[in-house]
Each structure stands twice: as structure tokens, then as C-alpha cells.
Amino acid sequence: MARKRGRDIHGWLILDKPLGPSSTTMVNRLLRAFDGRKAGHGGTLDPLASGVLPIAFGKATSTIPYIMDATKRYRFTLSFGESRTTDDREGEVLATSDIRPSDEEIRAVLPALCGDVMQVPPVFSALRVGGQRAYDLARAGRPPDLPPRPARIDSITLVDRPDADTAVFDVQSGKGVYMRSLARDIALACGTVGHISVLRRTKCGPFDLSHAYSAEQLGLDKPTETRDKACALPVPLLDAATALVDIPALAVTQAEGKSLICGQAVMLAHLEGNVPDGVEDAPLWRVTVGGHVIGLCRAAEGRLRAVRMLENHLFFGEQDVDHS
Fold first, then answer.
1. Superfamily of domain 72-204
2. Most CB atoms closer than 10 Å: which of 134, 150, 152, 279?
3. Mind listing the pLDDT tens digit for each residue in 218-232?
4. What region holds the tRNA pseudouridylate synthase B C-terminal domain (predicted)?
5. What is the DSSP code string of 294-315?
6. Which CATH superfamily is domain 247-316 in?
């Protein structure tokens, strides 16, 4: 998302998204508040959801795909007894049940919902069906029949049982997992129905709540016109390369790094740094020079080639170079 005017700001800001506004709304608010030119977010949170929303500014937007694919952690509350059209508390009631599973019954169904599974997305989702958003079709009274999609759920842990009607879970998952669908499926596996009533993301890739700032800390509760544009950044941004820390690192020399930035392949046999075993088996490497990340590369057929390079005039005394 880019504006015609604004400052060139680069880096990651981690927002503790409040309940109510959409992820896109929060990105727009931050762009206006910081007088930025370009920004995007690393993984949508529904208006009902709160928690870790990584927001990339400027050149950091090129690393968004690596956050979208990253492991995420959530805590949600499942309310038993009612299924809803949206699979959350905002929808209309579809069905009811008097069955309330015990803790033991809940824990017994969780292993079958973990691993590589097929998950049916909520009909109120942003998936496109015949060129239209699924939620638009559902709101028009034509809910689509969405096929199951592959999903990876690493772990589901029952962490609290406030009462017979509710259960609280911690979940670690991969890309594209819908917590609303997971809550629905846990209830169905227990022989009842349910919906998600509280959802909070606690981690997204390398970012967690310890990195996050609230809307109030960022001054988003104040009118935009009262801000001093010269002091529009109330907190420091994290470096763009922070999004890549979960990718294995490969050290190269400054000369080798400069060749990669200029689009030239580097022979693995010629690398002066230590080359880890299996370098050609990993899909991506986070290439560093003197401990500083210069970009992402892939090894194949004995050569290391750039996939996406970051700004590196700091190391090479050149103007910005972008071979992405």
C-alpha cells in the first residue's frame, strides 16, 4: 500500500492490534500518522482478533512474504453450544447443542487435528471464489461451498477451562491456518458445536508481544493534525532483515557479497567463508557480510545466486542497489 506523498521510512513496526479495526485500517492509520510513503502488513488479523501485527515500511515490504510463511502462535477461547455463520461471536446462530465435553474428552481429540491436515476455511473469509470474495458472497446470502485446503498445525494445547461453556487453547501453526475453523473443528470432534469468542496472536515469525506497541503508545488515539511531522516516529523501527532471522545464515566475504548484489553468481567452491553441509539442500540462505544481513540467496549446481537483496550502500559505499 503506497501513498503519492510521504517520507521514505524503512523497517518493521510491530503493532499490538486492538479489537475492532481491520489490519488494513491500522496500516493506513500508521501511514498517515508517520507520514510514510509505503507500508504493508505481514498476515491479516480479523477485526475480532488482537495481538501481533507486523507492519513493514518502505524496503521492509520486500520481506513480507517471509513473515507470511512463518510460524505463528495464537491463544483463543472456544465457546461451546452454538455454531455461528462466521465461526466467531459476530455471526448469527446456526445450530445449538447441550453437550459440553470434559477436559479429557477435549484433549483426546486434539492429536488428530495436528500435523498436515485438510481444513475447510470459514465462509466469511477473504478467499476468492469466481472472482469474488467469499465473505461478499456470504453476506449476499450465497455462502460458497469452500473445499478443504492443506494446513499445518504444529500443536494445540488446552491451557484453561474457565467454565463448562468455554475452553482456552494455545496453538502453533504454519501459513494459512484459520483459527475460526480450528475452533469449529475442535467442537465438532467433541460431538458438539462451537465458535471462537476471543482470539489473540502472540507471535508471528520472529516477532512476539515483547516487540509490540499499543495504538496508544504510538499516539494513534490522537488527531493526525496535531502531530509534529518532523517527529512522526515515536518508536524506533526494526531493521528490514529482522524478518529473516529464522532463515539459516551463510557468511560470505565483502567481495563475494558485492558480486551477489550486482547479480553475479558465486561459485560455492570459491567461497572463502565456512560453507555449512547441505548448503544446496536448503531453499534459502540468509547471506551475511561481517555479521550484517545483505539479502537472501539460493544455492544450485555449485553456485550461489541472489534471490532478494536488501539495501547495502552502508557496506559498499554505493547508491542503493536493488536486484529484487
1. Pseudouridine synthase (3.30.2350.10)
2. 134
3. 988 776 555 555 556
4. 180-218
5. EEEEEEETTEEEEEEE---HHH
6. PUA domain (2.30.130.10)
